[in-house]
Amino acid sequence: MAYFRPPGPAPDPVLVRSLTQQQHELHQRLRAEPLPQPPRLIAGCDSSFPTPDTILSVFVVLKYPSLELVEKVYNYGPVPLPYIPGLLSFREAPNVVQAFAKLVNKPDVIMVDGHGVAHPRRMGIAAHLGVLLDMPTFGVAKHKLTGTFVEPGPTKGDHSPLTDARTGELLGEVLRSKDRVLPLFVSAGHRCDLPTATALTLGCLRGYKLPEPTRLADHWAEEFKQEVR
User: Fold this and answer.
1) Which of 8, 21, 107, 222 could form a disulfide with 43 if both were Cys (CB 3.0 to 4.6 A apart)?
2) Which residues, listed in sequence order, are joined to residue 58 by a DSSP beta bridge?
3) Could you tell me which residues are beta bridge partners of residue 167?
4) Residues 24 and 37: beta-carbon distance below 8 Å
C-alpha cells in the first residue's frame, strides 16, 4: 500500500490504545491454512492517497492461472484517521471494504499490496482485511516492515526466509521476482498460509517486478485518479 505520511502532532494516546486493542482482537481471529483448492479467480488490491484527506482503493479480479482481467472497481472517500505507525490498516481498511463490496465477481483469494503477518503486531493490512472480509488473503510488499533476512540469490524465484530476529518466528519469504531487482516481501494474511502465498506470487509473475494482481491494481489506481480529480 502507498502511505501518505503527514507531519503533525503525536496521535491521541487514547485512540492508539483503543486501536491497538482492536488489532489484538482481530489477531485472535487470524487463521493460517492452505486454500482448499487452486483459485479460479485471484484479486489484487491497492490503496493510494490522491490528497492528504482522501483515499482511493482499487480491486482487480483476474482469472487464474491465465491472469486475464475480469473486473476492476474502485472506491474513493475521506481518510478516517490520521497516520499512526503500526496502525495503518485502520486508515485504509474501511475504504478497501467498500471497494470490495462493488465487485460482481468475488475472488477466491486476495493479493494485497502490503504486509500480512510480517508486521510488528502480526496484523498488517492483508491480515486485517482478510479477517474483516473472512476471505483468504496474503500480502506482497515492496519494503520490509519488520524482521531480518539473508539476501536471496539474484535470479527470479530465489527466496529466503524473513524471520523475527528475537524469536526466530517465520514471518514471510523474501522473494526475487525478477532477475537482479530488489526483492518482494511475501507474507500470509488470513485463511492462506505462507507456502500458498509464495506459490501464488510466483504464479502471477509476468516479467515485471510486481505480480500481476497488484501491478494492475496499481496501474488502475493511476487511471481512476483521473476520474476523481
Assistant:
1) 107
2) 46, 74
3) none
4) no
Joined grid coordinates for residue 56: 482511493
Per the annotation, where are the binding residues? Answer: 46, 113
Residue with cell 475504504: 95
CATH topology of domain 13-228: archaeoglobus fulgidus dsm 4304 fold (3.30.2170)
Matching residue, cell 486493542: 21
The arithmetic mean of pLDDT across residues 78-92, rounded, is 91
C-alpha cell at 48: 493510494
**87: number of Cβ within 10 Å:** 21
Contact at 8 Å (CB) between 59 and 72? Answer: yes
pLDDT interval class at 168 (50, 70, 90):
very high
**Average pLDDT of the segment spanning 185-196:** 98
> Residue with C-alpha cell 473472512?
134
> Residue 8 pLDDT > 80, yes or no?
no
pLDDT at residue 102 tops 50? yes
Pairing of strands 137-141, 159-163: unpaired
Identify whether the C-beta of residue 152 lies closer than 8 Å to the C-beta of residue 158: yes
Radius of gyration of the chain (CA): 17
Residues pairing with 140 in the sheet: 186
Find cell 503533525 and name the residue.
8
| pLDDT (tens digit per residue) in 32-51 | 999 999 999 999 999 999 99
Distance CA 17, CA 115 (A): 22
Global pTM? 0.94
Going by their DSSP bridges, the two strands 137-141 and 170-175 should be labelled as unpaired
